[in-house]
Amino acid sequence: MAEKEAHQSVAGQDPESHSGDVSPASSAALDETYNLYKQEDVTNVDPQEARKVLRKIDLHILPILMMTYMLQYLDKSSINFASVYGLKTGTKLHGQDYAWLSSIFYLGYLFAQYPAGYLLQRLPTGKFIGGTTLVWGVLVITTPACTNFAGIASNRFLLGVTEAVVNPGFVLVMAMWYQQGEQPLRLVTYYCMNGVAGIIGGLLGYAIGHITSGLQQWMYVFLIFGAISITWAVLFLLFMPDLPSSARFLTEREKVVAVERVAVNRQGVKNTTFKTYQMIQALKDPKTWILFFMAIAAQIPNAAQSSFTSLILEGFGFGVLQTQYMQIPGNVIQILSLLLSGWISSRYPNMRCIVMLIGNLICVAAGAALVALSTDQKWGRLVALWLCSFQSVGFAMSLTMISSNIAGYTKKQFTGAVLFVGYCVGNAIGPQTFRASEAPKYPSAYIAILVGYSAKTALVVVLYLYMWTANKRRDQKAATSGSHLTVDQEKEAIEQGMKDVTELDNPGFRYVL
Fold first, then answer.
1. Exposed, middle or buried: residue 365 (CB in 10 Å: 0-12, 13-18, 19+)?
2. How many CB atoms within 10 Å of residue 171?
3. Interval 269-328: pLDDT, tens
4. DSSP assignment of 381-427, as one string?
5. Strand, helix or coil for residue 178
6. Which position has the higher pLDDT, 124 or 98?
């Protein structure tokens, strides 16, 4: 009862809390790591000890996230590498069937978003993600058994269902293990494995192109990728902890420090109790819908960077084997731009939206070049296609908006689910802009790419202004200068975070810009 009263009192202090519209339900469930948190005052943690724990977390958690993220991108993009080796003929695809294979994957991804978000909250995080990784590996390795559109479409739908856990799950993992200022660099470190996957996939695709005996060439893509994923899933289940409090690689003292480190985020670590009022609050929060439409706009152009890259390069006039290694420079640009953006955003406070804006503007210029350049200027169009890889900067930074700027575990996972619904909608629409009747020039697709990048750029500005205004309003109400709170206000904000209070209901919360 006391917790309920405290929660309602906090909600009533801030005009942003919308407590007149949404009344927080009573919850006796504290953060899963609350007992560890109470063992020590967060202000007493030795910075040197905290850095040592951070290094151990980086060495254990980051490699697991990186390898898993690389494989999920490799597996969902496998049809891209197989497309030039007889996939269409082997599975009897005609007309828009190939485009639908990309869209159907994201329809499965969309179907699974809300169940995945709910289960990520209710179930042990590491075991749930590891289990779905194992299932998607099985789906990939059995793809060569599909001999028609119905079979491979069903396979792709189920693959989308299982891979739907990874992205929202990893956003939650970031918030469990890392402080707000540490998250951008770590998130882009695993996210840039998309680019690494593109390089590895291109090299494997090139090697597979030299196999001249045995099965049909396209089948080897799925057999190799699937076998790797199944093996990795077993290792993931063995070594990925569910929470800092259950991490075998940390000592008991280090577990306490790990929890105290992330408590300063004012978001807690994990709470398994689903709270309806937080879901309702997320639906009324403008940030939710700004991120939703940003995701749609960002992902409509994504087909050019995933399922259709090989076919686009063929349309530019490059040979089949050339289409495999000509994708590598774009992947390198993606990796370097992500790492640079993550470093800047972690090194300099409140630079995330600016970094997103710069990356998006480069994409707008690249999209304009794809629309404007004539078909005989294949090298200029190729460079423009490579520069579209900057789109990953904007999307990766938008994920840190959830891990850093959404508090309340139900609200965090639900907002993530909404964002990834937008992600699915954009990725389902994108392939349909590549009309088979327009091959190999695809003018409609290039116009859609330009429109998507332009809309996303405008929405970044809207998001920044909304959060900046909210911070200023809270600073004025708290009668503090800048974004700095008093020691007592800081402690109270941290305590509210460990009691699963949302960012709108916690007056001491400030958005990272």
1. middle
2. 25
3. 888 889 999 999 999 999 999 999 999 999 988 766 666 677 777 777 777 667 667 778
4. HHHHHHHGGGHHHHHHHHHHHHHHH--SHHHHHHHHHHHHHHHHHHH
5. coil
6. 124
Whole-angstrom Cα distance, residue 112 to residue 164? 6
Q: Contact at 8 Å (CB) between 76 and 161? A: no
Question: What is the value of pTM for the model shown?
Answer: 0.84
Q: Quick one: how far is CA 188 from the chain centroid?
A: 9
**Cβ(408)–Cβ(502) under 8 Å?**
yes
Using only C-alpha atoms, what is the Rg of the chain? Answer: 23
CA 160 – CA 140 distance, rounded (Å): 11
Angstrom distance (rounded) from CA 180 to CA 400: 8
CA distances from 378 to 302, 318, 334, 385, 416 (A): 20, 9, 21, 10, 39
Residue of 493, 53, 512, 5 whose CA lies nearest to 247: 53
Place of tokens 């739907």: 164
Residue 92 has what DSSP assignment? T
pLDDT grade, residue 416 (50/70/90)? very high
Over the stretch 19-38, which tens digit does the pLDDT of each residue have? 334 444 344 467 777 777 77
* H or E element at residue 196: helix 193-208
Amino acid letter, residue 185: L
Q: What is the 3-state secondary structure (H, E, C) of 442-473?
A: CHHHHHHHHHHHHHHHHHHHHHHHHHHHHHHH
Helix, strand counts (H, E) of the chain: 24, 0
Q: What is the pLDDT of residue 29?
A: 61
- Pair 256, 40: CB distance under 8 Å: yes
Distance CA 109, CA 86 (A): 26
